[in-house]
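Quick start: what a row looks like.
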Amino acid sequence: MHGRGLGSARSVAEGPTSSRATLRGATVALEFSPVRPTFDRHRARRLPLLVGVVLSLIGPGCGTRADEAAASDPATVPIGDRWMAAPLPPDPSRREVTTPPECAGLPGTDDELELTPRLDAEAEVLARRVAGTFTADTPTYERIRRDLASIRARVPAVADVRGGRYAGVVSLVVDVSTYASMDAGDYTAWDCLHARYGWTSPRMQSSGSVRLASGSVVGRYDMTAIAALYEQLPGVATAGLTGWPDGPRVCAERDPDGTFHYVFNDASGDCPSGCMEHHLYYFASEPDGAITIKGEHSSEHRSALPDWGRRVVVGGHCF
């Protein structure tokens, strides 16, 4: 399905698109394995989405006929439509965090940790990734939360397009003696990390020569940084993160002038193996709260990914 039953797909945008591509390939899905310490965890989570988008949006439909189809097909959303986003009541989320004196120096202040997890997981994860911080700052979070709510209320085509599930799970590959100590409750090296970031749903697993200790942190942090902290503990060989299969995504990027760019990727077609079809909707939010529908693009015609798609989906931050 494309665009949730809104008719044939099309590629419409304000501004030029990229040059035509002539490649065609199958979507590639990769999974991160916590037993391989040299694998890039951040890239592992992004590759199924990025490869699926790029490969499914290029293909045999190059040349004049594809260009004409992209230019002549009507959009399913009113390109150029502009409105003012209505403010939302502030998110009241807050929990009590007190760091023991012996655990000082770890990332995040108590005030920052008290604000996570917030009510809107999607906006919180995107805000943290856009800002590049350990936790989401309140202004960025509230801006994205307001914008996404306003866009979904205004444009029915993206009302049900939502990002992936947040997984705050850390899996530790440990040696035999460390595993025994953790299982018995005698391992204390991780006490500060547990006290600082939480550790729920603990699970101990032993299979052959591999021994795993896993748990979930309480807040929505920079999980790559969290994994790095656990990987420094004695007896821990690697710390891996849990990813999710490909699927619909929401992507965001921010300009230095405060303009935010959003792309809703309504992905479908064998998503557990890497989605084969992608219908993209592009929006821009100005600092004064004005939001504009800027573009739309579908993989159905196999035309080239627009510049805004490359920037926000491939080069931006998605969830």
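That is the whole record. The radius of gyration is 22 Å. The longest strand covers residues 260-268.
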